[in-house]
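User: My collaborator and I are trying to settle a disagreement about how two of our proteins should look. Neither of us wants to argue from intuition anymore, so we agreed to look at predicted structures for both before our next call. Could you fold the first one, then the second, and keep them clearly separated?

Assistant: That sounds like a sensible way to settle it. I'll keep them separate. The first protein:
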Amino acid sequence: MAEFWVVEGIDGAGKSHLLSRLADITCETVVLRKDDRPESGNRWAEERLAAMHRLTWGYDHAEPVWHYPSRYWLHTLAAWYELFHHVHVAPALAEHRPVIVDGWFFKHQARMALSKDEDMVSLAAQVFSALPQPDQVVKLSTPPGLAAVRRSGSSKPSEHGAFLTDQTATSERGFTTYQTRTNQALDELLRRHPAPVHTLDGSTSSKGLLSLLREETNP
C-alpha cells in the first residue's frame, strides 16, 4: 500500500529545497511542493488552487494579515490542504505511488497553539484532525539560527511572530526566538500524532531522504 509522507520543520528548515532535489533523483515517489505544483490536468481545480495559494502565501508582505481573525486563517489553510490532497495526493496514492509533500498543517497548528487561546487551540485541533493525515512524517531539525540566515531578506513579519506581537519587525533575533517557540510546539504536536516521525538533520541530502523512503516502503 502506497504511503503519504510529509516533511515538516520551521520556516527556513529547507523542506522545499530538499524536495526539489529529491524530485531530480526519483521517479518512483511523487514529490509535491505547494509552491511548484505539477499539472494535474484539471484546469478548474488548478486555477482555484493558484488563487488560494496567492491569497494564503503570495500576498504582499506589507499587508497586515495578522489583523484578520485567526479563524479565517484556520479555515483558509484547511481548505487549501483539503483541495490540494484531492487534486494531487489522492490520485497518486490511488495509483499505488508513494507521495511526499513539503509540509502539511502541523506548523500552522503549532503556531496557533502559541496563542494560548484555548478555544482557538481546540478548534484548530478539530479542524486539522479532519484533514487527510500522513502515514509518515519527516521532521527536519534545522537550528532556528541557521533558518534565520537562510530567510534573511526574504522573510515575512508572520515568520517573526507578528500574529502574536502585532508588530512588523523582521529582525534576525525576532525570527530565531519565534521559530524556536514554534519548533517546540511542533515537536509536541508530532509526539502526539500517531504517524511515525523520522527526525533528520537539516543538512540531510536528497539521497539520504530517498534511502529513508525506500527503507520504510520496502522493509
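The second protein, kept apart from the first:
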Amino acid sequence: MPVRESEPRFLEPLLGIVFDLDGTLVLSHHDFGRMRKEVIRLAEQHGVPPGHLSVQDPIHRIVENAREVLRTSGAPDGTIYRFESEYQKRIDTIELEALPRTVARPGAAELLRTLTGRGFRLGVLTRSSETFARQALHRTGLESSFAYLRTRSAPGPAKPSPEALLLLLHEMGVPLDRALFVGDHLLDAECAVRARVRFYAILPDPSEPTTGSMTADRFLAAGASAVATDLGDLTRQLNVAAPRTA
C-alpha cells in the first residue's frame, strides 16, 4: 500500500536521536503541582481573574491561557513581560530544588554509551531550564554523550512547539526522515508528530507519579511508532543491544 503524502517518510538507518530529559534519561521527581500553583498565583497577581486558570493543565498551557487573558483584557505589554519574567524565575527556583535527588534512569548510561559508540548524533530537548539540564546531566554522568542541548531557556519556541525540535535537529545536521525523538510524555509525542519526526515512547519509571496516566495505548493513539517499557527495552528496539553472553 503506497504511503499517503500526509504521512512522514522515514529512511534507514537512523542518524540522530533526540531525547527528552526528565523522566526519560533522569529521574528528578519535580514538584510540578507546586509549580503550576505558583504560576497561577503570579498570573492572578498580574490581573488574571481567579478561576480562569486550571491547576490540572500543564505549565505551558497555563502560561498561554494567562497571556491570552491578559492581552484580551487590555493589560499593558509591561505587565505581561513582568509576569513571564517572574514565573520563569519561580519555576527555576523550584526546579533546582530537585537537583540533589536527581539520578540517572536505570539503563541510561549503558544505552548512551552504546549509541555514542555506534556513531549516532545525540541531543536533548527539554522544557527544563538550561541551568537545571546541564547540572542534571553533569550530576548523573551523562553530559559527555550530548553535544546538542535545547532547553526552555533557549531563544525561540520551546517544546511542545515542533519548531523547537526542528531547530535542534538543524543544529545537529540530522534530516527529519533519519531522526528519532524519544520521550515519556504525551507532550513529547505531540512535539514529534507535529514536526513529522518519528517518535518512540518510553513508559514512565514505576517511581514516577505519572505512571498510571501514560500508557502504551495512549502513546500509540498519540502517534508513537513504538513504545518501550524501559531503557533496556528501548535498547533492544533500536537494535543496538549487546549480544547476550553464554
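Some points you might bring to the call about the second protein. Residues 196 and 234 are 21 Å apart (CA to CA). The radius of gyration is 19 Å.
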